[in-house]
Amino acid sequence: MELVTRIADVPVRGTGNLIAIGKWDGVHLAHQAILRALVAEARRVGGQAVAVGFHPLPMQVLRPEAAPPMLQSLEERAELMAALGVDVHLALPFDRALADMTPEAFVHQVLVGQLRAQQVMVGFNNTFGRGGKGTAETMRQLCTPLGIPVHIFQPVRADGENVSSTEVRFAVAKGRMQAAARLLGRPYAVRGLVVQGDRRGRELGYPTANIRLEEGRLLPPHGVYTARVTVLGEPRKLQPPVTVTPRTGPVYGAMLNLGVRPTVGGTELRCEAHLFDFRGDLYGRELQVEFLEYMRPERAFPNLDALVAQLRADERAAREFLAGRQGAEG
């Protein structure tokens, strides 16, 4: 898949561009329904599936003080789209000029004039144009006279709620990781570089990877988690226009502590993962950490012996959870 930030860099292929528009914040199940339909229709008519979004997200520009933490990086968003078969992700740089564009100007200048849209797909609650005045129905009213079909997708429901980025954030913020996974269609994950720690875990018999997380990412509550860790390898920085493919690597079950380590007098936030059955050096490698299940809150222990005893109990619980999950999956 091609990741581009300029309309001029969108390749010209096939019978034309089929466009899906959204913020794609999290690429959750509702987003996936639109993108799968986009790809299927593009393949049917011989066109190109183009997902149009924004980077940074509009709220980060318009009201940065109220902008919620990020569910994913642009790279992660692009990889998820690539896995779904999208041909191009156009991540438009959101700025004041774009924010001030009227719905009419966006359709006539961007969708028709520059992208030459053949079809448009949007979610039921999509807004666009100055002040968010354009709605999904506005899109239909503007595009239909131009001969451009507009497909409006209705809500996708899970756990009795409409799937949305807001619901994902709520679940993650509460530590309800399995609920978040049901909304996303996959476990909630973060990525980070392994950096030098104080090696205290190694001294306790539980060596950990100290993961430096990206600022502004949504994190679950402090505590101990059962996790799954993918060793992605050397970090990469995407410089659009660029071809994006999903990154993979060896996968390990893990237990993870997210917090300040009160037993040893820590004060700064750390994300430390102990990978089960791993042997080797992870310094300088990028890891993807999937939060599978919240096990317990972080707490101070009276001494290191008590901490080690709890770590052994955590390991047993995490391994049992992972074994049960593996059995359920296959």
UniProtKB/TrEMBL annotation:
Is this entry keyworded Transferase? yes
Q: Name one GO molecular function term.
A: riboflavin kinase activity
Which terms under GO biological process does the entry name? FAD biosynthetic process; FMN biosynthetic process; riboflavin biosynthetic process
Pathway this chain belongs to: Cofactor biosynthesis; FAD biosynthesis; FAD from FMN: step 1/1; Cofactor biosynthesis; FMN biosynthesis; FMN from riboflavin (ATP route): step 1/1
Q: Give its E.C. classification number.
A: 2.7.1.26, 2.7.7.2
The UniProt keyword set, sorted, is:
ATP-binding, FAD, Flavoprotein, FMN, Kinase, Multifunctional enzyme, Nucleotide-binding, Nucleotidyltransferase, Transferase
Protein name, entry field: Riboflavin biosynthesis protein
Instruction: Show the taxonomic lineage.
Output: Bacteria, Bacillati, Bacillota, Clostridia, Eubacteriales
